[in-house]
Amino acid sequence: MKYYIIAGEASGDLHGSNLMRALYQEDTNADIRFWGGDLMREVGGTLVKHYRDLAFMGFAEVVMNLKTILNNIKFCKNDIEKFNPDVIIFIDYPGFNMRIARWAKQKGIKTHYYIAPQIWAWKENRIKAIKRDFDKLFVILPFEKDFFEVKHNFPVDFVGHPLIDAIHNRKKTDEIQFKKENNLDEKPIIALLPGSRKQEISKMLSVMLSVVNDFTDYQFVIAGAPSQEFEFYKQFLTTQNVKFVSNKTYDLLSISTAALVTSGTATLETALFKVPEVVCYKGNWISYQIAKRIITLKYISLVNLIMDKQVVTELIQDDCNPKRIKEELAKLLEIDHRNHVLAEYDILESKLGGIGASQKTAQLIVKEIL
């Protein structure tokens, strides 16, 4: 069978690579053509476009690169027609993927969405396009099944979260070697995950690092994003107790005692590595006021959303200050509170369905098109 996969971001490349491995196991004659990255390329198939050539974030950047984006859409449609796949598998990346899906559905090509857009958080009106343009939807969060099936009468398959596979399948980090290679000392580590965009990183690190001198028995290690150069981070490495590693977040989390994490998928990754965390978010005042009115969720972290209760403390906007961060971080270092959080993490992982998301998804896709 012929599979065309579109992943437009680094996370999609990771989950796409695991899905491709599973597809090759389920269908030994699989012919895969894809948009993705280096991880997918290592598995096999034919790389059409790399995700780094597709990353346009923010309204102004999109407008400035509109011609390139429209050309990519046109190129993608032509490439799909030439390949004539049995199914297109869309991985997240909704702005681009939903445009292609509408066209593909009209052409009579099977359309499967893996890691659907988070319309339960905002843009819920996209449900009309999803119901119209997709034959199958594979969701990765337990509450999404009820959202689509009960609220919107659209059958979906809950396959579990692919992050569990990604973490389970990775090589164990050698703590001694990792610390030596990255010039870290023997102190236990508090990981800092401040996001991936410059403005976000600057804002979050300025407040996260304000508590460094209150925890001198620990070393604070910044997880550098692959999208940013070391030169940008140098301004934050002003004391001996603050270190830096680039593009090694999973290795860092696997040996960390606690973490300060900006909201997003990183909150779930941190929990799955069994690292007690404080979730920190401080945005532009106007943007925050707008978001608060558009997004009507009880929590901002995936951990709390999945558990439907506060498992990890969320310090948002004015609450994200040195005093509160110090208090909450100190709690995480107390044995009783740590054990409570870790026990909740175990329940969280079981709710996510355990290992095998990629395999389950591949089996369902192959079964559907045979």
Q: Approximately how much beta-strand content do the residues carry?
A: 15-25%
How confident overall, as mean pLDDT?
A: 91
Number of strands: 13
Low-confidence stretches: 56-62
Question: CATH topology of the largest domain, which one?
Answer: Rossmann fold
Helix content: 40-55%
Helix/strand class: alpha/beta
CATH homologous superfamily label of the largest domain: Glycogen Phosphorylase B
Distance between the termini: 8 Å
| Rg estimate, integer Å | 21 Å
> How many independent structural domains?
2
What order do the strands of the largest sheet run in, or round the barrel if closed?
A: 3-2-1-4-5-6-7
Which geometry do the CA atoms define?
globular
CATH architecture of the largest domain: 3-Layer(aba) Sandwich
Sketch the major β-sheet. Answer: 7 strands, parallel
Per DSSP, the total helix count is 18
- For the record, what CATH class of the largest domain applies? Alpha Beta
Organism: Flavobacterium macrobrachii
EC number: 2.4.1.182
Catalytic activity: a lipid X + a UDP-2-N,3-O-bis[(3R)-3-hydroxyacyl]-alpha-D-glucosamine = a lipid A disaccharide + UDP + H(+)
Keywords: Glycosyltransferase, Lipid A biosynthesis, Lipid biosynthesis, Lipid metabolism, Transferase
